[in-house]
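[Q] Does anyone have a clean structure-token version of this?
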Amino acid sequence: MVVSMRCGFVGLFLLVLGIPIVGKAHIRLNSPLPRVGTTDGTKTTNSETNPCGGVARGNTNLTAQVGSSLNFSWDETINHPGRFIIQFSPGLDKDFELPSNELFRKEDTENKGSHTASVKLPMEPCEACTLRLVQVMDDQPGELYVACVNIRLTSAEVPPPSGPGNENSSSNPSSQSERRADSGGGKSQMPGGCGLVSDFKNQDKGSSTYEGGVGKMLNLDTGRAVWSLLLLSFPLIIFYFLRFYRLNRV
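[A] Here you go.
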């Protein structure tokens, strides 16, 4: 009798304070994984002050890219006339009820069974956002079964800009060869010497340009050889000239 009276006082005290009543069952979210302890949907009577059935957020184990699609899968264990809604909160489990944060809606016309949905995630990145599956029951106004999923949204990957200054040399060999040609390809552009030899090596041997170039090169090399021979022989010429001059004087 005493225990019964105490329980009654506790229940009355909770009602006076306006603390929402929480229960479990009716829906079971299979994918994505909900918050720990809420595999079975949690019942709430106040979506604003108790949006996730009183279950703390905990760690965020799901990361997705903004604008991508995410598949939901859940089971309805007890049938109720009503609908299923998937909502989004950008942070602090707030603003689920905003029309812009509703991602999916489906009328519950089946007697229990499995359900699936594919939702497109919002385009704004967030670090501590939440997805919420809601079962609305028309035969029990004011009561909802909810399952919340912690998620983090990251920005989409932006490809590097394309343009004249951003060609990849490994994927664009023609541009690479053009740049080498513009810079001279590491060869001397002098009209004579080694540059001339290097340039004529790249000419077609059957062309007149090649033949003329080789002739010029041979003439140039012959003249250099003659001058080199004269310079090397000059001391000998002087030596024999002086010796001949002295012998004649004696």
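[Q] Thanks! Anything notable?
[A] The helical segments are 2-17, 173-182, 193-201, 208-249.
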